[in-house]
Design goal:
It contains three helices and nine strands; from the N terminus they run E-E-H-E-E-E-E-E-E-H-H-E. It has 144 residues and is of the alpha+beta class. A hairpin with a 2-residue loop joins strand 6 and strand 7.
Length: 144
């Protein structure tokens, strides 16, 4: 859920902290086969960037159709999949991409409903901007 009063995203799946390996901050030293092992370890710890761009989101109670795909970033970190849409302030994590997509849909539904319930006086400028963006990208909302 989002903490509207402090304007900080607190995603449903955001309880997983990102793993940062501080042992690999530069180029590994050249020492025979050890260099190869260190490079493999470095690449194994880096996350791969993928994209997630649905043209609709299906939540528990609503289906949101968009004018164009909602482009978001997907990363794998340790055993978790993280989907993030920075402009909307949504971060969702799951053990699988399907689980992360479900949390993303719940988070998207929550902010759409919550931000449209609030008056402009109750929102920060950032939240007003997100509300406006949401209402611009959504073409249609249908109930399940």
């Amino acid at each position: 859920m989002l903490n509207v009063s402090k304007d900080l995203p607190m995603g449903i799946g955001a309880g997983v902290m990102q793993h940062i390996d501080t042992r690999h901050t530069g180029i590994p030293p050249r020492q025979g086969n050890k260099e190869s092992a260190q490079l493999n370890e470095l690449h194994k710890n880096q996350s791969a960037m993928l994209s997630y761009a649905p043209d609709m989101i299906v939540s528990d109670h609503r289906i949101y159709s968009f004018h164009s795909p909602l482009s978001s970033e997907v990363r794998r970190e340790d055993e978790y999949v993280i989907i993030e849409n920075e402009p909307l302030g949504i971060i969702a994590t799951g053990r699988t991409q399907d689980e992360a997509e479900q949390y993303f849909a719940k988070e998207f539904d929550f902010i759409c409903q919550r931000y449209n319930e609030l008056s402009d006086e109750q929102m920060s400028e950032r939240i007003k901007g997100i509300k406006s963006m949401l209402n611009t990208i959504i073409k249609e909302v249908t109930f399940k």
